[in-house]
Design goal:
Layout lengths: L3 H22 L6 H14 L3 E5 L2 H11 L7 E4 L6 H8 L3 E4 L22 E5 L10 H11 L2 E5 L7 E2 L2 E2 L6 E5 L13 E5 L2 H11 L3 E3 L2 E2 L10 H11 L2 H9 L1
Parallel strand pairs: 2-3, 2-4, 4-5, 5-8
Antiparallel strand pairs: 1-9, 6-7, 8-9, 10-11
Helix pairs in contact: 1-7, 2-7, 3-4, 3-6
């Protein structure tokens, strides 16, 4: 299903000169390609803000931090996922609460979610496994009913559609990964957080940049989590072909 050598051969003539141009510009951190990619990814996903970071794991961790997750809180999610979905909850000092999967889709069984909600529940993190989004409309309604945040783990589903919106654009924050095997992949690690919430977007940027709004002033403990300029070059080229690549995966 995935042949990285064949993909590189297809894109080589466009990627190599673009990478060389970025190397010659010597703007390696937060350069023009990172800014351009964030704008292009936001437009593609149909959201106001796309905030890049160093990995899909960091995207989840920073998203959870941005909603104020901490000790004593609980997050409902699926046990059938990569470890980062749950480990990032634990890294915030909170507790992952597992709800079983629907055997037809392997996604979170929405019929079992409400029974797992307690006064300590802060958020629900569905995983759109194998590119197939969770049925998000009833899940968002459930979150609104109980005052919970909805954070989408869209690491395997960037470019998928649900009810006229892109995967990751439906919840409070959508998180994706650019690991080489993902739908939209870099030549290394990278991640992205999507949101329409201006306040959350500002907090995501601060947390991804050492907790700093003003250079050398750090009001919270943040992370050194940046998308590399060279990876942004590659992702910009691949983003233009994402729909075609996803159709090839389906076939």
């Amino acid at each position: 299903m995935l042949d990285l050598k064949a993909e590189y051969a297809l894109l080589k003539d466009e990627i190599e000169p673009a990478v060389c141009e970025a190397l010659a510009a010597c703007q390696y951190i937060g350069g023009p390609n990172v800014k351009a990619f964030e704008a292009e990814a936001a437009a593609y996903a149909g959201v106001k803000h796309a905030i890049s970071c160093a990995s899909g794991t960091d995207a989840l961790l920073i998203a959870l931090r941005a909603i104020g997750l901490g000790p004593g809180d609980e997050v409902i999610t699926t046990p059938f996922t990569f470890v980062a979905t749950a480990s990032t909850v634990v890294m915030c000092g909170a507790k992952p609460v597992f709800v079983d999967i629907d055997p037809r889709t392997f996604n979170l069984d929405l019929n079992q979610v409400e029974a797992a909600i307690t006064p300590n529940t802060k958020a629900i993190v569905p995983v759109h496994l194998f590119g197939q989004p969770v049925h998000l409309a009833p899940l968002r309604a459930l979150c609104e009913k109980h005052g919970l945040k909805l954070i989408e783990d869209a690491a395997q589903s960037f470019g998928a559609d649900y009810a006229g919106r892109k995967s990751g654009a439906y919840g409070d924050i959508g998180c994706t990964s650019f690991y080489p095997s993902k739908n939209l992949s870099a030549f290394g690690d990278g991640g992205l957080m999507l949101t329409d919430d201006d306040q959350l977007a500002a907090e995501l940027r601060v947390l991804a940049s050492h907790g700093s709004r003003v250079r050398y002033h750090h009001h919270v403990l943040g992370y050194n989590s940046r998308l590399d300029e060279l990876q942004a070059v590659i992702l910009r080229i691949k983003l233009k072909r994402l729909d075609n690549f996803n159709h090839r995966r389906i076939a």
